[in-house]
Amino acid sequence: MAITIKSAREIELMRESCRLLAIVHKELEEAIKPGMTTMDIDVMGDGLIRKLGGIPNFKNYQGYPASICTSVNNEVVHGIPSKHRVLQEGDIISLDAGLIYKGYHSDAARTHGVGKISPEAQKLIDVTRQSFFEGVKMAKAGGHLHDISNAIDAYVSGFGYGIVRELIGHGIGTSLHEAPEIPNFAQRRKGPKLAAGMTLAVEPMINMGRADVEWLDDDWTVVTADGSLSAHYENTILITDGEPEILTLY
Ligand code: MF3
Ligand code: CO
Question: What is the pTM of this model?
Fold first, then answer.
């Protein structure tokens, strides 16, 4: 599939979809506290998305049963919300959320600390976030897609963390997942040329230990193979002729 170039009208709808998603993420971040269950987060996020006029795009996506992916500690992504999973002080939790607004998808993820967390966990969260920004510095029309991948890898490698390879970023628009695939690790090829009007979800997933991951028996939850902590940071961005626009920031 070719990479779609959004028209001015489509870009406006992407901006609005992403603006609404940013509101959802901000409210969820403010709500996170010890004693909450991951199901509480899903119920709140689902309600917010609908109140804002969006449709949760993860719900029932290939059978995924919830609106917000809640991944705690060694869970990398796609954790399934549960009323039995109670957040404890010191946990870290990755929230991945998305919505559809007037047919246009948005997608973003953040990792938050629950109460007071260790300096090591905070550093993992900070480096994961910064790796996104290092990658996105390269996201310019006329450049190549894998400039983003290479920049993320170059930054993260210096910390000795493991970059998840099995899961990657993606184009986004009238579908949640469009071309191109966006790896977060160094590539030998340049990849496709970037052009103004492309909308991309760039989403590094970084493990404190080894890069390897496994899937739990629920068929969704991805965990680190060595049990180490993992963080995720994702925004939907727009390629322009100048600096990229990060559409899901708050
Ligand atoms: N943000 C995830 C992604 O980019 C979407 C989660 S897929 C779901 O792939 F099925 F878990 F919803
Ligand atoms: Co995504």
Answer: 0.98
pLDDT at 1: 79
Q: In angstroms, what is the span from residue 176 Cα to ligand 2's centroid?
A: 7
42 lines ligand 1 (CB under 6 A): no
pLDDT of residue 250: 92
Ligand 1: centre distance to CA 159 (Å): 27
First-residue to last-residue Cα distance in the chain: 31
For ligand 1, atom 8: residue with the closest CA: 58
pLDDT, residue 242, reads 96
Q: Which residues of the chain have pLDDT under 70?
A: none
In contact, 82 and 69? CB cutoff 8 Å: no
CA of 42 relative to ligand 1 center, distance in Å: 14
What are the pLDDT digits (tens) for 234-243?
999 999 999 9
Ion ligand 2: residues, CB within 5 A, are 107, 201, 203
Say if CB 136 and CB 237 are below 8 A apart.
yes
Closest CA to 183 of 215, 143, 212, 147: 147
What pLDDT is stored for residue 74 in this prediction?
99
Q: Which residues, 6 or more positions from 132, have their beta carbon under 8 angstroms from its beta carbon? A: 152, 202, 203, 204, 233, 234, 235
Tokens of 44: 């709140």
